[in-house]
Structures
1.
Amino acid sequence: MKHILLSIMGAMMALPTLAVDFEYTYEGEKLIYTVISETAKTCEIKAGATGAPSQNVTGYSVVIPLIAKNGTKEYSVIGIGAFAFMKMTGSFATNTYLNTVVVPETVTSIGQAAFYGENITVICEPKTPPTFPGGSNDLFKYGGIFVVNENVVDAYKASNLGKKAKTVVGIKFPTQSIQWNQNLSYITVGDDITLTATATSGLNVAYTSSDTNIAEITGNKVTFKAPGDVTITASQAGNNIYYNAEPITMSVTVKKAPQSIEWDQNPSYISVGDEVTLAATATSGLEVTYESSDTDIAEIDGDKVTFKSAGDVTITASQVGDDTYESAEPVLMTVTVKKSQQSIEWNQNLSYISVGEEVTLIATATSG
């Protein structure tokens, strides 16, 4: 039986991992992506079936991003699957007349028939030609132009990929850079910051976080959720005019949030025997603890204090912090405990007393 169970477990471990697909919208076009490696955080434009595209674009051009996001997860786009944009151009088009696709520099492979159609222009940013199956596999149906950096024209013409195009054109891509002068030197947990990097091209800058548990980014807004070190990267993937910009990184040390103790209680008249509920609060909302400098005078249980004898005593309110908040500066309150007041009650009637009588006096003190 043990051998049978081990065989079943081995067979289950050998089963291929199911592919994970997700949608991400960039520059107005929603594309479908397939995760290649969860460990390496890589993905590709989802492959279509033979003769059927996987994508359903709505415009005339598509800009594929460097990074595709699935919720809080971010994946580098390294491939374009086979048949991805098939039959989206010319007389083949079913939904649109796609004529331009911008391929980012991160792409290292392009599948067969990925752009199968008429007269499509592919602006290819990778400095090394992406791999292509070659042989009898088609990339385009008719036409097909690669526009590449002028420095790598020969490399593309000699590649399997370039040989499938009607023309490989070299141009000098307009350059752009990112400017980011923001000061993130003092950041604490809970801060919400608008990131202000700009590209000289005027195109939108995208941001990614090296640790979304510490810094979570939505658009150009970042929320710092936990203390620690995190790197934020600003990038601009380019378009059909501009080459991608060199990304800029900014390292941020997120500190615990500060807190303070507020304690407005008035202990101006306290006498022996008084029991008081202490009412200090921490701005963090965390529980405040108390300590007495002399438990013979003031004894504390939780937030209750009982004054047991006369004298001066100091009560300290503290909050030590947690994973999110720094410890608060303790607040001290000095209390002078007075002796309790007492009175004498004597209601005895001694209005008629004769010589020689002995009377027991019955006055009492309220103190006992």
Note: Helices lie at 2-14, 153-158.
2.
Amino acid sequence: YSYGRNGYYYTECGCCYYSENGKVGFSMFCNCASLTSIVLPKSVTDIGGHAFSGCVNLRSIVVPDGVTTIGDRAFSDCRNLRSAIIGKSVAKMGMDVFSGCMNLEEFAVSQENLNYQTTNGVLFNKERSFLSAFFDMKQTVYNIPESVAVIGNAAFADCMNLTSVTIPMSVVKIGKRAFFNCSGLTEIHLNGLLPPVCEGDCFDNVPVNCKLYVPKGAYGAYWAASVWGRFVNIIEE
């Protein structure tokens, strides 16, 4: 990949793309299988939705410090992506930005970023009250920090190796598709007496026989709650 003058991008597959106003456009390099590396110019401020989706041989990405926005599924299904570094100015990341990147080994955000931070491959807002995305695809057990109040849309989507997750009482809301396709989940531990509010599809493709462990005295609340009541094994502990 190389960047030419006047907003033109040239790839190894012989394709030529045009962008303007500092944007990498929607689906601009989508499914470009020959793309193995990217060096985005400092002038880029916006990476559009699906911009690099399906670039199956892309190995790494460094989002430069000038970028403020990364669109939905911008790097989704880049199945050989190993490393992603996010610059200091990113203020907004869409849904499923790195979904399907099953081999992602390194995910980090600049320490100068005022909006996001990472801890062991997990993306939080700066205050760690919002869990935005979980990128440690090989991890099997995860305890969500007690600082978290909201689990974001698609935060754990496609984490098929995850078998157990603990949700602290601090969590009050779980977003759309938060645990979508976490088909390996066998147990969920909830520490709150009141069930967190869930979007209707947040546990799609999670086995209904996944064991739901809740505090003593909380069985009725979870059984009666939308979404939680679909689990057939609700156990007080």
Note: The radius of gyration is 19 Å.
3.
Amino acid sequence: MGCRGVHFSLSRAEVQRLRDIRDERERLEYVLSVIEEEYFENHREDLAENDKAWDAIHRCFDPDGLSADGGSEYPLGHFILGGEHLYFEDDHILSLKSPELVREIAEAAAMITEPEMRRRYDAIDAEDYHGYKDDDDFKYTWGYFQEIRRLFRKAAAEGRCVLFSVDQ
């Protein structure tokens, strides 16, 4: 995949199944072979692809860069990396947001306008960012932000969890 992220809206039963898998490597394999396959084939309305925009989106809400704990801005700092880490290694990240956190993130994300997102995007440290900071990259980032925001809104309304997954 090459650092391409995706968010999945999961039921509580699916989350329990993930938590029941004690070995982190097995949990990762389950997400890759069962959840990804099932959602991409049968539940596309419950996923939001992020491509590589997840990096800039996270940096917009985490002035410290790519903090594993979501950074200092709550709850938006948890939009991507924050939440419960189900797997957090050099090769992959799985970060789970509870229904309560999903609701808080959805409410906060709904308040982000395009000019506000642009202000945050422009504040990203270009030296630390691996993308090209320009108008096209901002449009790309804004577009994916809107897709993820849609998923959070839907998941919040349904009382579901959201899992962020990205290979490194």
Note: The chain has a mean pLDDT of 93.
4.
Amino acid sequence: YGDNCIAPKERFNAREAVELLINVVGDLNNKYDTEYITDILLGVATDNIKSYSLHRHELFGKGADHDRRYWTSVIRQSLVEGYIAKDIEKYGLLHLGPNADKLDTDKSPIMFCIDREFNGQEDEELTVGSPTSALDEGLLHALKQLRLRMAEKNHTQPGFIFADYILDQMATFYPIKDEEFLKLMNVNETQLKKYGKPFQEFIAKYVKENEIERPQDFFYIKTIAKKSSKLPEIISGIDRHTPLDTLADNLGITMDELLNEIEKSIIRQGKGVKLDYYLYDRYDQDSIEDVLIYFKEAPDPDIHLAMKEFSGDDYPEELIRLVKIKFSTEEGQYS
């Protein structure tokens, strides 16, 4: 097991919890991240939960007998064991993993343990309100601090070193070897050679000091990005200033899928794309400028934080994603 355990006495049979987790993730059609799923299990009716009417779901609050640390532990270890998985390219949304179906035939106990609790003093600038798909918040916090120090030393933006979603992977799988780092999504040899060693050494020390048993199977961490057959049509459509919703319809995909493709196949490959023709035609200029200023002034221009900062009808998710693409293109920050 890839356990980050605080004591052997806290090991428990998590079978019922894993089954409930799988039911929640599957029943909600793989559309929500760790934070949402945990709130649903605990029965926490946040504004975001209410906005999707999730507080009315039949499984809402079914895990309220346990606390947040319990469910975070179950989710993290279920991820490592393959009962659930997360889509890093879609902001850490949880979906059923390759081993979910095995629970129907394998009735043996599932032994998990409670993750250690991180009690360090947090840098408010870096962490307040920060949603994440990482499942070791203590390590993630420390890695963000390390990244910030390296960015200051190298006179660059933190996202140029390792993007947030890469830190999320580090704080879930604890990679310490070169071959493990290269199996993280969108980490290449040049990046590893330039920035990897301090992160490897820090994670190795963290693992040793906290007696963490790392997951052994790193082969499933990285999704091999196949070149999209639709990418040439997307680029051609943008060059012709085809409205993005029309372009998506012409390609037989949703608007969400179109933006995913632009983010994955263009922005994350270090290239820019100009979408002002669509952005300013569909959205209010003041709303666009508000979000753009946020990205420019934020110490860590993470889209998750932006979605938390801006909510309501004036700032839909599509607007925030489009402005992040604009920001990445104009500022050369392709994280």
Note: The two ends are 31 Å apart (CA to CA).
